Predict the structure.
Amino acid sequence: MTEVFVIRNQLGHFWGKSKAWVDGRDPRAVVRVKHQDEGINTLFELSAKDVGLRGEVVAADLGPKGEPLLEVSDIPLPTPPEAAEDPAPGADSDAATAPDETQQDA
């Protein structure tokens, strides 16, 4: 078999084995299926959860190591919401939530 199918979204990211979008730098992390209809079924399930998804099932040739040859996306992966909310380690998180002391003296 010299061809597999992968799922690519409108940003050029690929559906990964970790059930998250990956940029294609590590082809081992990309979900690949032998049959196009398997990919279509997975894409249908993904688009049912994300109505803004514009994806496609594309054929990918396999390289000498058996990994799909993919074009890496230039668009950065979105930051997960929980990672964006966490303050940086060592950051003073109380400063943003501390009440203004001038108002307490009144």
